[in-house]
Amino acid sequence: MVEQEKQASKPARRSTVLAVIIVFSALIAVGTILSIPLPPPLYEITWSPPIYMALSLMADPWTAATATGVGSFIGEAFNVSFKGGGSPIYPFGMIWARAPEALIIGWARTKSEKMMVVAMVGATVFETLAFFFPDWLFYNYALFQYQPQGGIWPSFWTAAFDFGTLADLAYIPVALLLVRAARPAFRRLGLE
């Protein structure tokens, strides 16, 4: 028991943190590539949210944000390049929305499960708004291959499809199950 406590309190080595970033970046990229196609302007719902939500609760916030940003960028760049959907700015938008989302969730990692859920809900709302407001401007000013919508209100309603991102809230129970399953391994690695 004492040996387990020593092992759990020992900080993670840099190589372990780097390995976690690489492995989870790959998982998040694959979860982004294996997406559910939707009509424009949404294009897709990805399978990666429970992965980065769970990682954000088990690893330090900067490790989770790095893996989330890198994996989301790579996955979305693949989707834009090879699946033929969306604008070239989408991979950058994934970093803009998801890396801070991981930081928000990471804030609650040492809190109660109720606070973890509140943080995941808040982070998902942040992600949605981080997609919505730029898209509203991009549609209004016809930037980054967006088609003009004929004014501020038509642009608003077109960008409002971004609120479909709130569907990620359904992944919260999955993320909590992943945390319960993987947390002992993260503790043994010194990541929690």
Explain this structure.
With 192 residues, the protein is an all-alpha fold. It has one domain (2-188): Arp2/3 complex 21 kDa subunit ARPC3, CATH 1.10.1760.20. 69% of the residues lie in helices and 2% in strands. It is built from eight helices and two strands, in the order H-H-E-E-H-H-H-H-H-H. The protein has helices spanning 2-9, 14-33, 49-58, 61-82, 90-107, 113-141, 152-159, 172-188; strands at 36-37, 44-45. A hairpin with a 6-residue loop joins strand 1 (36-37) and strand 2 (44-45). The longest helix has 29 residues, at 113-141. The radius of gyration is 18 Å and the shape is elongated. Mean pLDDT is 89; it is low at 1-8.
- Count of individual beta strands: 2
Q: How does CATH name the architecture?
A: Orthogonal Bundle
Give the neighbour order of strands across the main sheet: 1-2
| Terminal-residue CA separation | 17 Å
SSE succession: HHEEHHHHHH
Mean pLDDT: 89
Overall shape: elongated
The count of helical stretches stands at 8
Characterize the biggest β-sheet: 2 strands, antiparallel
Amount of beta strand: under 5%
Q: Could you name the CATH topology?
A: Arp2/3 complex 21 kDa subunit ARPC3
Report the radius of gyration as a whole number of Å.
18 Å
The first-level CATH class is given as Mainly Alpha
Structural class determined from secondary elements: mainly alpha
